[in-house]
Amino acid sequence: MLHLAIAIGLVAGLATGLAAAxxxxxxxxxxxxxxxxxxxxxxxxxxxxxxxLVMAVIFTGVAKLGDPRKLGRLGGTTLxxxxxSLVPAIATxxxxxxxxxxxxxEVTVPAVGDTVAPExxxxxxxxxxxxxxxxxxxxxxxxxxxxxxxTALLAAAAGALDDEPRQRLIGIADALGxxxxxxxxxxxxxxxxxxxxxxxPVTAQMGWALLQSLAxxxxxxxxxxxxxxxxxxxxxxxxxxxxxxKQMLSGxxxxxxxxxxxxxxxxxxxxxLEEARENLGVSETVADLVVPLGASMYRAGSALFxxxxxxxxAHLYDVPLPLSAAGGALLxxxxxxxxxxxxxxxxxxxxxxxxxxxxxxxxGLAILLGIDRIPDMFRSATNNVGQLATAxxxxxxxxxxxxxDVPGDA
Length: 410
Known about the structure:
mainly alpha, globular, 78% helix
């Protein structure tokens, strides 16, 4: 019922925005732009619970492991897959866009102001930044990765305590997580109105002309995302975890449909946890760690989008991108993809360092932001599929049976 209501809200928002753009009606345009606060309020509600929910669920998942050595094996396997799969995702986006460029027509680049690219951190600086000097400051600034490191270390220390205090802390974190998940469900019941408020103003501003002129880019990204899911995740799941395409796609439909509609994998976190356990057979401990960790930092769909965007914008601005430069662009995209926040359009904003590294004008970001709603929906759904696929794969690699038998694991 909720999924249908969200779909209705999305279609209504798109129809209202397109009608306003096509007719030029002042009344329709006022309606389309006037509902923007509804979408902003909805996304504020989602962002409100992101940090406490991720911290509570990760704390529970890590603390239940008990032995810190299990955390090392589980966490190491998860991160290794996260990072290694980003490279083929970026390469797929670049390759599909290179093919798509053959079908593009000349596009007049809008005159927009340039921006300054934030400096791309070095690898050592990136690692140092993962250790927060002040966890509360990291929380207030929305820095999820340092908070995840702090939460995982605190939970590992809690897991090494005697059984009674460990169970007490796990019980508190469990109760907090359940309350936050309940709160997310309440917020999701406002999603049809919120999605209407998000879709209508963006579509009204885009209009048909911009959609048509950049259709090749959007279609190329969507095709690339489909190829990556079909040729990377689904075969791996079948070979490693014994999960067929039908079980994977139908069993996780609720989660990725919410991610698709809201363009936020965090919004789909409660449903993703439930479907990972019940429909994919992932053990509770693995699901409680891998799924929220993935929602916080693993977005292969966004990485694929960024690879395609670099090739497209380089073509748009007549910036040469030979194979040697493509390697540097791939590395830069890999680094910035690790910092993509789980909120709408962040995959566009964080492209700035990679564009600056290869000499593409940063004004191209404004062009992508104008059309980003459609590819953002598809890449968010792909991100969610990848996060659930990772949970199932890691559960098979580390041995789900071992984690189910951990004392205190309900």
